[in-house]
Amino acid sequence: MATNRLSFGGQVLPCYIERFPAIKKAARKFRQYNIPGRNGDIFFQSDAYENVIQPYQVYCGDDHYGAQMDWGELAKYLYLDGYQILKDTYDPDHFRKAVFNGPLDVENSWNTHGRATLEFNCRPERYRIDGANPITYAHQTSSIHWMAFDDLSSFIKNSLLSGVDTYGVWVVSFPASASSRTVTFNWIDDGQYKKYATISPGTATTANYGTSASTRWNTRPLGTLAEDWVIPEIYYDAYPVIEVDGAAIGSAGVLKNPYMPSYPDIILHNVASYSGEKMAFQVNDKTVYIEYDANTPYYFIDTENSSVTCSATLNGERGLANNVYISADFRLQSGDNNIFTREYYDVTLVPNWWEL
Fold this sequence. Notes:
This protein is mainly beta. It is built from two helices and 32 strands.
C-alpha cells in the first residue's frame, strides 16, 4: 500500500499523512474603509499576501512499540527555529517555507497508533522545486559601455555634443545587420530634444568625423551600417536597455518567468579587475553595482531582503558587503526578463519560482 510522507527542515518525519491535505491559497493583503454616506467600501489592495495555515492529518506508531515513542521523535523534529522547508509526497512539484509552533495534541487509539492534526504556519508562496535550480550566465563584453565625457575625442566633445552638460556617456555598438527601429528604455522623456552622436565603430576616443542628431522620443530609425551611438548618460534614469529588431543589445539571454514575480538569489564571481565602481549585473532595468575589491571576489545577494555578503572563496566565511549597490525591488517579473552580464562577473541565479 502506498504511503504518503511529510518532510520538514530536511528531515522525513516519523509519521504518515492519513488523507489528502487541504489545499490552502493565500489571501491578498488589503485595507478596507467604510465611508459614511457612500455606497460600498473602498479597498486598497497590496501586491503582497498573508501567511497560510496548512494542516496535515497524520498518524504514527505500530503494534510493537506503541505510539508514544514515535510521537516523541516527531516532536523533536517539529520544534525548530525559523522558517523551514516543508514538503509532502502528494505535491512533488512544490514546497513551502513554514514554521511549526504547536500544539501537538495526540489522540491515542488502543495505545498503539496515534492521530493528530499538524498545523504549519507557511509563507504564502508555493515554491516550485524547479525554481530552486541554479542558472548560470558567463561574463561577456557588452555592446553598451560607459565612458567619461572627458575621454571622448575633442571632435565629439566640442562639435557633435557641444553644449551638452554631462559627466559620462553611453557608447552603444550596433551591428550592420540591425536594420529596423531601435527602442531605448529608461529614457527620461521630458518632451525636450536631446542631442547624441553617431560615429564609426570603436572610435569614441579618436573620432574626427561623425554626425550629430537630436530626438525627443525613445525610438529612432537605424540604417544598415555598423555604427556607434554616443548618448549622454543624463538622458537615462537607469542603465540603458536598448532593443533592436526586438532583441536587447548586449543581453546574455532572456529568462522566461511563467509564474509570479520572484526574488532571485544571486552569486556574482569576479573574473576581471577594474577600478572604481562598475555595473556588474542587470535584469531588465534593475542593476547591481560593485566597487572593485580584489580581496572579495564572491558576492551573495538576497534580493528579497536587499542584503549582500561577500567572501574570498565560494564556500568561505562571509561578511557584510559595503561596496555593493542593488536597485530597490530587484525582481524577476512575470514573462520575459532580459539578463545582462558584463566583462567583470560570472553570474549564478536561483530564480525561486513560486505560485499561489
